[in-house]
Every structure is written in C-alpha cells, then in structure tokens.
Amino acid sequence: MKNSATSSSLRPAAAGTHVVLDPGTLGRPMHLLGSFTSQFKTALAESFRTGLNRRYGADYRVESVDIARAAGTPPRGRWFGCATPFGRVTASMDRALLLSVLDYRYGAPVRAAADAPATDAVRETATEERLAATLCARWTEILLDSIEPGQAGDLTASAGAAPAPGGWTMTVRLAETRLAEPASLWFVLDDAAMGRLLRSIAPSREKAKPASQQALPVAARLPLVLTGRLLEKELPLGDVLDLRPGDVIPVSLGLADVLVDDSRLFTAAVTEHKGKLCLTSFDDAE
C-alpha cells in the first residue's frame, strides 16, 4: 500500500536532461501532500467500512491515494462536477467499480471476478447514472471534510464534461472481491480547491496574514476585553437576608468602572443611545 504526492516538477530528470519546474508549486507545501493523502485514505476507508461493506457484506479496500498534476487528458468516462465552498471538484470512477456497487445495492448474485461480464457488454441505465452522481457527491464530501472538517455541507453532483488537461488529480485505487483488478476513482481539483487544500496543510508560520492586518500597528491588532461595572452597593447582611421578591433597592447611577482582566483602568459616564446603555467620556482611573 502507498500514499504519495507527486508532481512533474519533483520527478528526477533522466541523464542529460533538465528538470522543468512547475511555477505553481514553488513556495508551496508540496512536501506535505503525502500526509494529506494518508489522512484522506483513512477517512475514505472508514466510509467504506461503515457504509457499503457493513450494509452489503462487501469488501472494498482503499489500496492507495496519489495526487499529481495530470500531464495528459483525463481518463475517459462519465464525469460529475460539484460546486463546493472551496472551488470546483470533478469526480469520475472506473465503470467496473460503479457496476459492482450497483450489484450489491440490488442484490445481484455474487460471481467470481473472472466470471463477471465485460463492462462494455452491460447496457447503461438511468439508475446507473443516478448512483454515479450520488457516489461522486458523497466521496467528494469526504475529500472536503479531510481538507476542512464541517465545511462541505450536502453536495449535489451533476454530469458534465471531462475536466481540462493539466489539473491536479487525486487517484484512488480500490480493490474488492467482485473486481477482476483494482479500480480507480479520480478527483480533479480546480485552482481554487487546490489552493484551499495547500493552505490547510501549511504550517502555521507559512500561513500568510492578510496584507490589511500586516499593515496595522500592534495596538490595532491586539484585542482586549473591556468589562463595564455600572455600580456597587454595600448592604448589611441582615438586610440581604430580609430581601423578598418584589423588594426595591434604591441606587444612584454614577460613573462606571471599566476593567481589563479585573484591573480598573478607566471611569466612564453611562448614557442611553437608541434604547441601549452606552459608556462614554472615558477618564483614566486614579
């Protein structure tokens, strides 16, 4: 089994040739993609274990997850796109994988992988297309949750054209009893989605702060919690014990104390503005 992140910019050059650098990878945490693919592999495997495998007695196993910038055209087949909060993700799978899931869902008899009919001999149906869209949306949600948990929401996948060549492609290899050989599942991330992935795995020191924050002085970037204490009144213990519902304690509202972490720093006048109490006329506390 393996998990890897590769790019044409990282492959060793043959003798007598030069490495062509991909400018889109310079200064980005490409070396950390392996840890992300491992994380996604674990999440996808758990989804199969608690979903298809448990429900239908299947044996789907995630053998590997790789990510690379595709050099050629995407694999032929049906592609389903999802508009996500991170960008656009387009997914597809080997038809053999889709047909095996379809067989499990509808109770087709288990056959040896060698006895399964060729995928070209099986007529395509609307049920198959709906299942493909559902599975692509569900697996894309798992991918996005691996990038930033809880941000994917409920996705809907729609059939569309294959993505353009050269996109970042995540390839998942799956094995199962009904499959004669491991099948593939592909996710192609557009630039926005790939950028979100790279930002999520970047170490904290590499996550650049917005320029607007960098330009502000320290005093403007340091948040403090101010506590306004409107009044204090001392009462004898006997008066406190004699209090009953409906009793009125007379008070007079003067200057309020303004505290930071229980330290009294200012005094301020209490005013009303549009039905709300506000503090104004701040003075340094003596």
Give the helix/strand layout.
Elements: E1 2-5, H1 33-56, E2 61-69, E3 79-84, E4 87-93, H2 95-105, H3 126-147, E5 158-160, E6 168-175, E7 183-189, H4 191-201, H5 211-214, H6 218-221, E8 227-229, H7 237-241, E9 256-260, E10 263-273, E11 276-284
Parallel strand pairs: 1-2
Antiparallel strand pairs: 2-6, 3-4, 3-5, 4-7, 6-7, 8-9, 9-10, 10-11
Helix pairs in contact: 1-3
Can you describe this structure?
It is a single chain. The chain is α+β, with helices and mostly antiparallel strands and 286 residues long. The chain has 2 domains: 2-213, 3-Layer(aba) Sandwich (Chemotaxis protein chec); 224-284, Surface presentation of antigens (SPOA) (Roll), CATH 2.30.330.10. The chain contains 7 helices and 11 strands. It has helices spanning 33-56, 95-105, 126-147, 191-201, 211-214, 218-221, 237-241, and strands at residues 2-5, 61-69, 79-84, 87-93, 158-160, 168-175, 183-189, 227-229, 256-260, 263-273, 276-284. The protein has a 7-stranded mixed sheet. It has a 4-stranded antiparallel sheet with strand order 8-9-10-11, with no helix packed on it. Helix 1 (33-56) links the parallel strand 1 (2-5) and strand 2 (61-69). Helix 1 crosses helix 3. The longest helix has 24 residues, at 33-56. The chain is elongated. Residues 6-15 have low confidence and may be disordered.
